[in-house]
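LAB NOTEBOOK - FOLDING QUEUE
OPERATOR: T.R.
BATCH SIZE: 2
PURPOSE: Compare the predicted structure-token outputs for two unrelated chains run back to back under identical settings.
PRIORITY: normal
REVIEWER: second-year student, initials M.K.

ITEM 1
FIELD SEQUENCE / FIELD STRUCTURE:
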Amino acid sequence: MRWATDSSSPRIPAICPMSADFAFVARRAAHPPIREVRFWLIQLMVLTLAGLHLLVDVHFVVATSTFPAGIPVTLLIVPIGYAALRYGLAGAATTGIWAVFLWLPDLLLPPKEGHTGGDLVDLMLILVVALFFGQRIDSERLAHARSERATAESLAVEARYHRLFETNRAPILVINSQGAVADANPAARLLFGGDVVGKPGASIAEIDPSQPPGRVPALADGRDYRIDLVAVPSATGDPSTQVIFEDVTEERSEGRRATLYAALVVQAEEEQRRHVARELHDEPLQVFLHLARRIESLGGVPGVPEDVAAGLVEVRHQVLDAATRLRSLARDLRPPTLDRLGLVAALTSLIADLEDEAGLHVRFQMTGTEARVAPELELGAFRLIQEALRNIVRHAETDMCTVVVEFHTDELRLRVDDAGLGFDPESQDQPGSGHLGLLGMQERIRLLGGALQIRSSPGQGTVVEATLPLVQPPRVPETNFVASAPHALSYPGARASVREGRTDPGP
């Protein structure tokens, strides 16, 4: 246990709960201040009074004494009381015991020569009063010492806080309950000016203690600061708010660069999808269709054996089936309906294809007034629902699901839910889980300024919900990724298109 010492008071425990007061006082009483001269002077006074009292009782007749009862016992209240005031319970108890010990010879005198009954009662009363006041004085001193220690600790904490406040490199303002700047550290004075104290907080970066923390305004020095608000209690009852400006310029720059890079990657992916879809539509698909017509014409040539004609018919069906699959692949890469007719039409076509190819029964709902939105939003919404439906076909093991598209005045809401196997979303976020589709969905929605929520659990199905603001996001600078990075494309048609100078491969 740590002890707090004072030059004018005995040491006390640094932390002493009320339940330990009695034990502390008892320990004090067991250790009288025997090293102090005044203490022994008090004991000498008690010895003198006891000796005079005994002398008067033994050598003088009580009736002729100048005192009503010789030397009164009540005179002992003077030294015992002084000992209590000076040394607390330790002084009072020691002096009282010493007085009783010295008064014993007088108490043993015959009744005719002394006042045994009265002296005994007086001694007991004096001892009780002395012990009571000694204990009270010790308790008061203990409380006073605690108060002084608490005050000292408070001052030390305040001094440490002030040092931290003054030496902190982050600008810090203290706003009082009236909304004015009550204090500012040197960094804040350097940023906002030396006369910032007294100005309204609203005039400085629109500081409002009622607003949630975390805003990142750009201040006069051109850097970005995140504002953190901390409520500071006040002993005067006037609460204040500490406003900390954390420089996040580099952090935000890194975040912007990462966002731009992600947007460029998504744009490059869409450019490649568009280019591949166009190439599939322009070359291989046309070749398959031409081959099917040629096979059909060969089957109609006179003199062709029946078994050969039947084989040609089967081959023609296989070629047409391959052409259909190729056309479906081109639509998945970049559905032309999305650019021409909008999101709802593209989703209707996608759902019809999935019902035909995978046997998935989709209940499609649209609420609100359908409207064309920014191309980036339409594409992001389509890719989200497309990936969610693909996941249902691949993993959910169910043939029923629901797709909901809600048009609002300021946002677009999407929901895809199924009653399939479900999964643990937290396990899919771990590195190496192999579920890049979910990560791609999250990244697309984040780049569009929206919010994505995936709720699922094993055996309980999955719900994918997204909200997209109907505000066109900042556009990524137009870049022809196909022409600028032909090495990224490994198919001959793409390289031929680059050589031919085709810069808009969209359907």
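ITEM 2
FIELD SEQUENCE / FIELD STRUCTURE:
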Amino acid sequence: MDGSRISFKPSELTKPETYKILNDTVELVGTSLEKSQIDDSSYEVAVSLYGEMENEIGFEQWKAHDSTRQSYDISMRGSYALINTLADSWRNGFIGLGDRNMQQPFEFQILGLDQIPEEITLVREVVNKRYSDDLDWSVLIE
């Protein structure tokens, strides 16, 4: 469980805003209303971001809440890459979200939210912690 929150007002997101949560850096760069990838007749809000994540992203679970506290599932979309990571030491370095060189941010697709609300709160409900310490430990199983 995590519970880290990022709250922002989309109309005031005129320049990137950076947030630090559990050693992960998330830089929000914009919001937009896009056609749903699930249902062509509807729209959903996309939050564009870049990130440097110390923790794993594969099993994270995020939720979004609008101004009325309605809860929405989030689907993650975009590229990610290992940064400053050695082939034999994947625990060091970061996971970069989005591609700054190609100006292709990562996106949180807020499923079912069909208009941009006054305020959005992103909540990371589950985080897959990545420990970089070279721990030499074992568990005795009998």
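REVIEWER COMMENT (ITEM 2): The beta strands are 4-8, 17-21, 24-35, 43-53, 56-65, 71-77, 80-83, 94-97, 106-110, 120-128.
FOLLOW-UP: none requested
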